[in-house]
From TrEMBL:
UniProt protein name: DNA mismatch repair protein Msh3
Natural source organism: Stegodyphus mimosarum (African social velvet spider)
Transmembrane segments: none
Keywords: ATP-binding, DNA damage, DNA repair, DNA-binding, Nucleotide-binding
Biological classification of the source: Eukaryota, Metazoa, Ecdysozoa, Arthropoda, Chelicerata
PROSITE patterns per record: DNA_MISMATCH_REPAIR_2
Length: 236
């Protein structure tokens, strides 16, 4: 590889207790690439190949299931979301506690509320019922909250990045991707940053960023009020 395209190595670990990893991070930060890498290593190890790692210890898996990408199926009259749900249904019906399941941004093909609800319910089922090794990529905050519900079984990681200091309040958030997997949850997805890289005009981006900040403020207020209401009820 050229110097500008150096490979970034990462360490990932699951065990018989911590069997689920939720991965977050910026768009174009390397999440899907990391998941593909793990799937390839798992497949290569099971057919007796050397794997691209300094060391690797994998259990004997009875299945490796991956739901990734966004494509429709015109011949079968299936929309993008229907394809996504059909493939997820097959995984849920086939996976066992000895399987590796990789789901990349499940639920993105429909409304935010429905998508987040499906993602949460699916991951909860994988954790509590199937109990397989699970790698789950998401941008939904509600999915990340499963870490608090099942802290002994779920670990959270994100793709590292560095934010550029902004001189102008109207300037666009700019993230430099490091492609390192680090512990914790990413605060944002920085989709507007990717839109800037794609050449969307700055006027549109500034307007989008302002709307994003307004939505974030509303969400924070709703969460605060919900938490305050819950505390008041519990004290009755």
């Amino acid at each position: 590889m050229g110097e500008e395209h150096q490979f970034v190595a990462n360490d990932l670990k699951l065990n018989n207790v911590e069997r689920c990893m939720i991965m977050t991070g910026p768009n174009m930060g390397g999440k899907s690439t990391c998941m593909r890498q793990i799937a390839h290593i798992a497949i290569m190890s099971h057919i007796g190949c050397y794997v691209p790692a300094d060391s690797a210890v994998l259990p004997l898996l009875d299945g490796i299931y991956v739901r990734m990408g966004a494509d429709d199926d015109l011949a079968q009259r299936k929309s993008t979301f229907m394809v996504e749900m059909s493939e997820t249904s097959e995984i849920l019906a086939s996976a066992t506690s000895n399987s590796l399941v990789i789901l990349d941004e499940l639920g993105r093909g429909t409304s935010t509320n429905d998508g987040a609800a499906i993602a949460c319910a699916t991951l909860d089922y994988l954790i509590t019922e199937i109990k397989c090794f699970t790698l789950f990529v998401t941008h939904y905050p509600s999915v990340m909250e499963l870490k608090n519900i099942w802290p002994e079984h779920v670990i959270t990681v994100h793709m590292a990045y560095i934010l550029r200091d902004k001189d102008d309040k109207e300037d666009i958030d700019t993230a430099t991707f490091l492609y390192n997997v680090v512990p914790g949850i990413s605060e944002k997805s920085y989709g507007i940053n990717v839109a800037a890289l794609a050449g969307i005009s700055k006027d549109i981006l500034c307007d989008a960023q302002q709307k994003s900040r307004e939505l974030e403020t509303k969400i924070k207020i709703c969460r605060f009020l919900r938490k305050k209401t819950s505390t008041s009820v519990s004290n009755l």
